[in-house]
Amino acid sequence: MINKNNITPVLTWLAFYVCTCLAAAGAIWFGGDLNANGWISPNFAPPPWVFGPVWTTLYLLIATSGYLISKSHHKLAGLALGLWCVQMTANTIWTPVFFGAFDLRGSLFIIAILWLSITAYIPIALKANKLAGYLFTPYWLWVSFAAYLNFAYLKLNAVS
Predict the structure, then answer these.
(1) How confident is the model at residue 110 (pLDDT cuts 50, 70, 90)?
(2) What torsion do the CA atoms of 9, 12, 18, 20 make, to the nearest 10 degrees?
(3) Would you give the DSSP letter of residue 157?
């Protein structure tokens, strides 16, 4: 017989992971060749094969961080969870704006919101659960790079 006390944490973590998978699902429909629309790529743009392993790892870290915050009884856990939701929403919206609408300005605006929400989340999460905060550090680094990359695409492909 399955003990509810043993299965509830697993189901809670799975719920957070499903949220990250839904965010990643946008890449299935909109991910593609950046050169298909004639964009000039920055010379520091990573090869396409890098994105799958990086995002798979990041989504595991994001889900685990959210799960840890959901289990925290710290007074800032609610705020941290709210910021987790904001970053997840911005993360989900960025892909169709960048790849689907080919809107470099709009995607730069969204990734700025994403970056700010991650930046705000980390110190708050660190107070509620240290590991939860630390798990977002690679994500913050990657989104910082992605924001710079988005900006570079905008500059190289500016439409007058």
Answers:
(1) very high
(2) -90
(3) T
Residues 136/125/63/52 CA torsion (nearest 10 deg):
-10
Number of folded domains in the chain?
A: 1
Six-digit token string for 63: 């889900």
The helix, strand and coil proportions of the chain, stated in percent and rounded to the nearest 5, come to 80, 0, 20
% of the chain surpassing 70 pLDDT: 89
Please, what's the b/e burial string for 102-116 (b: 16 or more CB within 10 A of its CB; e: otherwise)? bebeebbebbebbbe
Q: What is the CATH number of the domain that holds 128?
A: 1.20.1260.100
Domain ranges, residue 91: 4-156
pTM of the predicted protein model = 0.89
Q: What is the mean pLDDT of the chain?
A: 89
Vertex 125 angle, CA 110 and 107, to 5°: 5
